[in-house]
Amino acid sequence: MVYRLVGELPNFEDAMYFSAITFATIGYGDITLSNEWRLASAIEGVNGILLFGWTTAFLFKVSELWSSRRAADQNIAQP
């Protein structure tokens, strides 16, 4: 929304596409920002890398906790 609201990109579709491609760190380069906004797209890309990493770590830990909880429940149920 910010890219569209500040007039950096011509329409909402281009702004969403650019943001998704940048956040996922694919960076095709078919849509680019002006020199004044280049740093914003770089920060968005770094943010995407960090959030994908944190999400992976979180899901791994939840899976580990769920597995250990299941094993503990099975041990309690067996006499």
What's this entry about, in short?
The protein has 79 residues and is mostly helical.
Task: Describe this protein's structure.
- It comes from Rhizobium gallicum bv. gallicum R602sp.
- By secondary structure, this protein is mainly α.
- The protein has a single domain (2-77), classed as Helix Hairpins, CATH 1.10.287.
- Helix content is 71%, strand content 0%.
- The chain has three helices and no strands.
- It has helices at 2-5, 12-23, 38-77.
- The longest helix is centred in the last third of the chain and has 40 residues, at 38-77.
Layout: helices, strands, pairs:
Layout: H1 2-5, H2 12-23, H3 38-77
Low-confidence parts lasting 5 or more residues at pLDDT below 50?
Answer: none
Count up the domains: 1
How would you classify the helix and strand content by structural class?
A: mainly alpha
Measured as a percent range, the helix fraction is: over 70%
* CA radius of gyration: 21 Å
Secondary-structure arrangement, i.e. CATH architecture:
Orthogonal Bundle
Quick one: biggest sheet? none
Question: With helices defined by DSSP (H or I, 4 residues minimum), what is the helix count?
Answer: 3
Q: Briefly note the CATH topology name.
A: Helix Hairpins
Distance between the termini: 59 Å
Shape: rod-shaped
Quaternary structure of the protein:
single chain
Average residue pLDDT: 89
Work out the strand percent.
under 5%
What's the CATH class label? Mainly Alpha
- Give the SSE order as H and E letters: HHH
Q: What's the total count of β strands?
A: 0
Organism: Rhizobium gallicum bv. gallicum R602sp
Protein name: Ion transport 2 domain-containing protein
Pfam family, one: Ion_trans_2
